[in-house]
Design a protein that fits this description.
alpha/beta; 6-stranded antiparallel barrel; 34% helix; 25% strand; binds guanosine-5'-diphosphate; Translation initiation factor IF-2
C-alpha cells in the first residue's frame, strides 16, 4: 500500500508524503527496489510510438540526397519591446505586396513569404509573423524547431536592453544564427556603432569587426535598407545552413497559429517543413484531423499545394490544434481520426492529472490546515498602475504570522493574458485581476491548466478574501 511505499522511499533517502508528486528518477528508483523496470515515457516518446504504430515518422526526410531540394529559410523576429519588431514585420510584408498585382492587402495569417533578389536570383524567405520570442519558445518547449534564422532587432536610439539579451540567449541556445537589424536609424539620436560595440560584448561580433554576424542598419518606419536585410538573411543561410527538404513526399510540419472561425470552422496556419501539402490530403494536426478542404496564402488567394517552408492557411480540420503542434499527412481519414482520438484522450488524461496538482485559493487553505503550504504565489493585474501598487501594498500588510508568505511573482497593467496564465501554471500561482478581464484565450487556458483567476473591483474585498484564505477561513463562493 501507499504507506509502505512511503517507508521504502524513506529508506532510500527520499522524503515524500503520500499525496506529494515525485519526480521521474524517484519512480525509477522505486521500481528498481521492487524489481520492476520502470520507464518514464515523455509525451514526445509516447507520440512517436503512436505514430510508429501506424508506420509513420515525424521529422525525417524520406528518400536520399537526390530527392532534396533547396528550401527558403524560416525567420523569426526577436528583440526588446518597442524596438520595432512589429513595424519591421509589417514593413517587410507590405513592401513585398507592392510587387503583387490587384488584391494587394495582406492578411495576418501567422506567417508569410517574401521574395528577395540576391545576386540576380529570386530567393524566397519565410517570416513567422508573431513578434517576440513567445512563439519561438512555445515551439521549442514542444520540442519543435521552426526557426532557421533569427533577426535580432535593436533600436539604435536605445541600444541593447534586457530582452535583447534574452532573445540573443534563446537563439544561441537553439543554435540559430542571428542577423542583427539595427533599427530606427532615421532618428537623429541613433547610434548604430554603439549597438555594434554592445553586442560584441555579448559575443555577437559584426563581420566588419572580424566576427561572423551580419549587422544591417535599417529603418522600419522609412522602409530603409529592407532589401539589404533580406539579402543578409539569404547570405547567412547560404553560409552556415544546409536548408534542403524533400518536396516529393507526404507533407509534415508545424502549426503556427490556429483559431475557430465563425464561418469556416477550425482554421490553422501551418508551416510545411518537408513534403508538399495538397488540397484533399488527410491530415492530423495535434488532436485535430480532417481532409484539407481548401488552402489560402497570406494574400487570401486560394492555393492547391504548399511546398517546404511555405505557410498555408488550412481549412477542413475538426478541431483547433495548438500553436507549435505538429501536423502530418496520413493515408486516409480513418487513420487520421484514429491518431487524433488517441491524442485527444491522452491530452485529456494529462490535463486531469495536471489539474489535480494545481492550486486554488481553497486548496491552499486546505493544505494550510494540514500544515503543508508556506507560500502563496500571486500574479497581480490591474487597470491602472496605481491600483496594482495599492493592492500589492495592502497585501504586504496582511499579518498572518511567520509561517506563511505571500509572494507577488509578477504584476502589470492591462488584461490578463495567456502569458500570465502560463507563468501562473508554471509557478503554482493564483491570478488576481483588479478591474480587468481576461483577453484572448486566457480563460480557456486557465481552465485547461487548472489556474485560478479571481476578479475584484474593490481592494478591501480582495484583501479580505486573501487574508481569509491565509487564515483558513475562506468560504467557497458561488
Ligand atoms: P515592438 O514592440 O518591438 O513590436 O515595436 P513596434 O513595432 O510596436 O514599434 C515601437 C514604436 O517604435 C512604434 O511607435 C513604432 O512606430 C516605432 N518605430 C518602429 N520602427 C521605427 C523606425 O525605424 N523609426 C522610428 N522613428 N520609429 C520606429
Amino acid at each position: 500500500d501507499v504507506s509502505s511505499l512511503v517507508q521504502m522511499l524513506f529508506s532510500l533517502g527520499e522524503m515524500v508524503t503520500a499525496t506529494e508528486s515525485v519526480n521521474d528518477e524517484t519512480f525509477e528508483l522505486l521500481g528498481e527496489e521492487l524489481n520492476y523496470v520502470v520507464q518514464v515515457v515523455s509525451p514526445e516518446d509516447e507520440d512517436r510510438e503512436l505514430l510508429e504504430s501506424f508506420d509513420l515518422e515525424f521529422g525525417e526526410d524520406e528518400g536520399d540526397e537526390a530527392d532534396l531540394a533547396i528550401r527558403p529559410p524560416v525567420v523569426t523576429v526577436m528583440g526588446h519591446v518597442d524596438h520595432g519588431k512589429t513595424k519591421l514585420l509589417d514593413a517587410l510584408r507590405n513592401a513585398n505586396v507592392v510587387d503583387k498585382e490587384a488584391g494587394g492587402i495582406t492578411q495576418h495569417i501567422g506567417a508569410y513569404q517574401v521574395t528577395a533578389e540576391v545576386d540576380g536570383n529570386d530567393r524566397r524567405i519565410t517570416f513567422i509573423d508573431t513578434p517576440g520570442h513567445e512563439a519561438f519558445t512555445a515551439m521549442r518547449a514542444r520540442g519543435a524547431q521552426a526557426t532557421d534564422i533569427a533577426i535580432l532587432v535593436v533600436a539604435a536610439d536605445d541600444g541593447v536592453m534586457p530582452q535583447t539579451v534574452e532573445a540573443l540567449n534563446h537563439a544561441k541556445a537553439a543554435g540559430v544564427p542571428i542577423v542583427v537589424a539595427v533599427n530606427k536609424i532615421d532618428k537623429p539620436e541613433a547610434d548604430p556603432t554603439k549597438v555594434r560595440g554592445q553586442l560584441t560584448e555579448y559575443g555577437l561580433v559584426p563581420e566588419e569587426y572580424g566576427g561572423d554576424a551580419m549587422f544591417v542598419d535599417v529603418s522600419a518606419k522609412s522602409e530603409l535598407n529592407l532589401d539589404k536585410l533580406l539579402e543578409a538573411v539569404i547570405l547567412t543561410a547560404d553560409a552556415s545552413l544546409d536548408l534542403r527538404a524533400n518536396p516529393n513526399q507526404d507533407a509534415q510540419g508545424l502549426v503556427v497559429e490556429a483559431h475557430l472561425d465563425r464561418g469556416r470552422g477550425p482554421v490553422a496556419t501551418v508551416l510545411v517543413q518537408r513534403g508538399t501539402l495538397r488540397v484533399g490530403d488527410s491530415i492530423v494536426a495535434g488532436a485535430g484531423y480532417g481532409r484539407v478542404r481548401a488552402m489560402l496564402d497570406e494574400h487570401g488567394d486560394t492555393i492547391t499545394e504548399a511546398d517546404p517552408s511555405r505557410p498555408a492557411m488550412v481549412l477542413g480540420l475538426t478541431a483547433v490544434p495548438g500553436a507549435g503542434q505538429t501536423f502530418i499527412v496520413v493515408e486516409d481519414d480513418r487513420m487520421a481520426r484514429q491518431i487524433a482520438e488517441k491524442r485527444e484522450s491522452r491530452e485529456r488524461a494529462a490535463m486531469q492529472a495536471k489539474r489535480r496538482v494545481r492550486r486554488t485559493l481553497e486548496d491552499f487553505m486546505a493544505s494550510m490546515e494540514k500544515g503543508a503550504s508556506q507560500e502563496l504565489n500571486l500574479i497581480l493585474k490591474g487597470d491602472v498602475s496605481g491600483s496594482v501598487e495599492a493592492l500589492e501594498d495592502a497585501l504586504s500588510q496582511i499579518d498572518v504570522g511567520d509561517e506563511v508568505n505571500i509572494r507577488v511573482i509578477d504584476r502589470g497593467v492591462g488584461a490578463i493574458t495567456e502569458t500570465n496564465v502560463d507563468l501562473a501554471a508554471a509557478s503554482d500561482a493564483i491570478i488576481i485581476g483588479f478591474n480587468v478581464r481576461p483577453q484572448g484565450k486566457a480563460t480557456e487556458m486557465a481552465e485547461k491548466e487548472g489556474v485560478e483567476i479571481r476578479y475584484y473591483s474593490v481592494i478591501y474585498q480582495a484583501i479580505e478574501e486573501i487574508e481569509a484564505a491565509l487564515k483558513g477561513m475562506l468560504k467557497p463562493e458561488y
